Structure formats: structure tokens, C-alpha cells
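Researcher: I'd like a candidate sequence for this fold, 296 residues long. If you have to choose between options at a position, lean toward the conservative one.
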């Protein structure tokens, strides 16, 4: 599971840390949605029901935006489905801060958002997990391996971010509007999978990690990378770390669609999953997209 995260970069630093290359090879910084940069608050302890930064396709808000344009938004952690009828979202009687990948399409709260392509990437310095040790719990902080270039400094080289490498987690979001009218509330849930071998001694679950720009791009590309229920009975049995969404994502028609390996740190430090295992998380969710030119 994932019940606490940290995201300590300032709003403008977060833009730089989330920079990406567009299809022309140019490095871009995602903009914040109008007013969201002012609402964002860095924190070492973000919990469910708090607001946090997510990365998503600009096409969820502007159908004419380029297919590869991303935007940052400040959303509340804990998905409130669009169909929720109460006037107060706090009246939901169950937790939606995490959703298990293996039954996400069986849960009404997540199914509709996911099938509409409302996928997002939760960005954070890392997340906390607690290991039970007899009568006590030992906290660990899990994060991406940091190179010498990004282990401590905050800066850029040739337009690329050289500060702390943010953890990128697969999520699903939805937009809820109060029945009587009012400002829409954007919320998200963190997708979880079976823990990788290097983390299972801490907890049996972990967030679904997207390792690298290509995995992030495919997850956000809801227009061309479609989510499907697995149907290939002859496919290779998924491993513990890749069980979550095998074959859920496949190429869809090129027409535009509307939107309706980390480390752990305890009181000391230890390591997360090796990269070979971690990239098995969401890599298998995505099948190779069509090689035909994409519409813009």
C-alpha cells in the first residue's frame, strides 16, 4: 500500500523536475493548471485527503492540445468518482487512496475513470512504508536511485534537471462536481501491485512505479494507448512484480479521443528493487503502439 508520500520541491522546481522531451526532441517543462501552482504546498508528509501534484495529458482539458503536451495539477488524494451523489465527498464510506491493480476493473469507483482514459502520474520525492517488527513498526522511505548528478543539488544542465529524481507512480483520477453545483473537485488514487522482491520484506504491496520518460509517456497517452481487460489466456504468467495490468494497454486507432527501481531509507538507508525487476511493473501494461504517424 501507499499511505504517505513526500514532495518537497517548490512549484517552479517541480516543473523543472518533471521536464520531458516532446516528439521533436525538444525538452519541455509542464505548466501548472491555472491557479494550481499557488495552491500547491511542498510537504515531507502528504497523506490521503491532502492535495498533491500529479502529471497528466493537457488533452483532458483541451482537446486541441498537442498529443504529447503534459500539465501539472494539484489534486486531492483519494478518488471521488464522478457518479458520487452525496454533497460532501467526506461521506464516502470506504478508502480510495489506493486501488489494487488486479481488480481495478471490477471496482465501480475506478472502472469508469480508467476506461475513459483518466490516467495520471503521481510525482513525489518518495513514499513511506512501515515494517512490522514484533511490537514496533520501522519506517522506511522509498525513492528512486539517485546518481551523483541528482543526489543533492537542484539545477539543470543543457535544459535537463539535475536535482532530485522524482518517483513517478501510476494513478487514476476523476472529476467530481457537487450535485447542487459548485467548483469541480479533481481527485486521484494510487495504483498498487505486489511488492518486488527487494521490498516484500517491508510490505506485501507497493505503488506501481513508472521508470523513465517512455513509461510515463505511454501511461499518459490515453488517446493512442488504450486500456483493455486481459484476454490472452496463452500469454506468459505474470510475475509477482508485473501482475498488475498485463496486456491492459494496447494500440488504439490514431483518431483523437476525448477525455468524458528506487531506494528505501529507514533511520539509516537501504535499497529498493533492482532495476530489472522494477521495470516489469508497468512495462507490460503497454504494447507497442502503432508506428504510423500520430495526429496532432
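Model: Candidate sequence:
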Amino acid at each position: 500500500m501507499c499511505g504517505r508520500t513526500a514532495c518537497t520541491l517548490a512549484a517552479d522546481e517541480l516543473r523543472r523536475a518533471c521536464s520531458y522531451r516532446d516528439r521533436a526532441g525538444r525538452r519541455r517543462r509542464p505548466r501548472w493548471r491555472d491557479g494550481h501552482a499557488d495552491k500547491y504546498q511542498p510537504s515531507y508528509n502528504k497523506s490521503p485527503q491532502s492535495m498533491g501534484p500529479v502529471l497528466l495529458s493537457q488533452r483532458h482539458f483541451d482537446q486541441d492540445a498537442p498529443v504529447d503536451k503534459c500539465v501539472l495539477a494539484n489534486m486531492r488524494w483519494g478518488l471521488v468518482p464522478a457518479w458520487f451523489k452525496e454533497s460532501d465527498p467526506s461521506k464516502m464510506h470506504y478508502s480510495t487512496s489506493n486501488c489494487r491493480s488486479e481488480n481495478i476493473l471490477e471496482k465501480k469507483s475506478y472502472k469508469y475513470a480508467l476506461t475513459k482514459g483518466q490516467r495520471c502520474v503521481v510525482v513525489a520525492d518518495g513514499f513511506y512504508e512501515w515494517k512490522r517488527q514484533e511490537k514496533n513498526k520501522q519506517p522506511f522511505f522509498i525513492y528512486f536511485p539517485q546518481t551523483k548528478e541528482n543526489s543533492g543539488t537542484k539545477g539543470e544542465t543543457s535544459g535537463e534537471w539535475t536535482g532530485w529524481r522524482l518517483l513517478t507512480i501510476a494513478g487514476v483520477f476523476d472529476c467530481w462536481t457537487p450535485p447542487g453545483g459548485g467548483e469541480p473537485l479533481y481527485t486521484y488514487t494510487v495504483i498498487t501491485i505486489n511488492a518486488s522482491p527487494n521490498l516484500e520484506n517491508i510490505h506485501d504491496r507497493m505503488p506501481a512505479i513508472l521508470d523513465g520518460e517512455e513509461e510515463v509517456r505511454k501511461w499518459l497517452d490515453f488517446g493512442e494507448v488504450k486500456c483493455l481487460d486481459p484476454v490472452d489466456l496463452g500469454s506468459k504468467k505474470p510475475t509477482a512484480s508485473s501482475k498488475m495490468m498485463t496486456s491492459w494497454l494496447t494500440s488504439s486507432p490514431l483518431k483523437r479521443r476525448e477525455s468524458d527501481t528506487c531506494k528505501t531509507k529507514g533511520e539509516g538507508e537501504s535499497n529498493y528493487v533492482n532495476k530489472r525487476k522494477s521495470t516489469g511493473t508497468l512495462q507490460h501494461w503497454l504494447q507497442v503502439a502503432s508506428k504510423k504517424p500520430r495526429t496532432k
